[in-house]
Amino acid sequence: MELQRARNHVTALTAVLTVVSLALVFGAVLGAIPSTFIPRASTAVLDAIPHVNAVVSTFAIGTIVAGVRFIRRGDVGKHRAMMLTSLALFVTFLVLYLYKVTLTGAADFGGPTAVYRFVYLPTLAIHILLAIVCIPLLYYVLLLALTRPVSELYETSHRRFGRVAAALWLVSFALGNVVYVLLYWLY
Predict the structure, then answer these.
(1) Residue 162 · residue 176 · CB < 8 Å
(2) Per-position DSSP letters for 17-84, written without gaps between them
(3) pLDDT at site 1
(4) Are 10 and 147 within 8 A, CB to CB?
(5) Euclidean distance between CA atoms 109 and 112, whole angstroms
(6) With the CA atoms of 11, 12, 14 and 19 taken in that order, what torsion angle do they form, in degrees rounded to the nearest 10?
(7) How far apart are CA 148 and CA 80, in angstroms?
């Protein structure tokens, strides 16, 4: 019964989940979530989060690419497994990132002003924009996939939106790794 209701309201559920997710993200980034509500990890754990997230992002890039390749070969089961793994990696990344940002704030860029203005900020802006755009797309294709049998998915816009979501997701993860390299390795 609940599945049928969800199936009939994929767009509305997508909107609600998107608003809640973005409220949490912006609440953490803008400091609206008090850090006193969250248990504080050691400095070593907090310092490790960006490095762990870079590894998580790299694995997510691999699982998204594998998922796309599997569906092109017609292997729906492996496609689903890879995309659900990608989603789990994305959630892991986001939870760790928001935890760190809530407790310590955003990382400061320590490089030259020219690199900051012409490389770091544009890369970060595109990464953030794509991540924001991906959220409703991901919810939409996920809800379509979870509320319908595979045979019915071909009659929905899952494929069309999934292609866009996967492409944007890949670029967002890749640019996130570029931001990581700029922040934690080069400068």
Answers:
(1) no
(2) HHHHHHHHHHHHHTT-S-GGGSPPPPHHHHHHHHHHHHHHHHHHHHHHHHHHHHHHTT-HHHHHHHHH
(3) 63
(4) yes
(5) 9
(6) 140
(7) 13
| Six-digit token string for 127 | 């990464």
| Residues contacting 169, CB < 8 A, separation 6+ | 60, 64, 86, 90, 130, 134, 138
> What b/e readout covers 76-86, taking b as 16+ CB neighbours within 10 angstroms?
eeebbebbebb
Ordered structural domains, the chain, with CATH? 2-186 (1.20.120)
174/34 Cα distance (integer angstroms):
30
For residue 118, give every residue at least 6 positions away whose Cβ sits within 8 Å of its Cβ, in sequence order, or none. none
Q: Would you state the pLDDT for residue 177?
A: 97
Give the mean pLDDT per block of 10 residues along the chain (187 residues): 82 96 92 88 97 98 98 96 96 95 92 96 97 96 94 93 96 97 95
Q: Are 41 and 174 in contact (CB under 8 A)?
A: no
**Cα–Cα–Cα angle for 135, 98, 25, rounded to 5 degrees:** 40
Are the C-beta atoms of residues 61 and 82 closer than 8 Å to each other? no
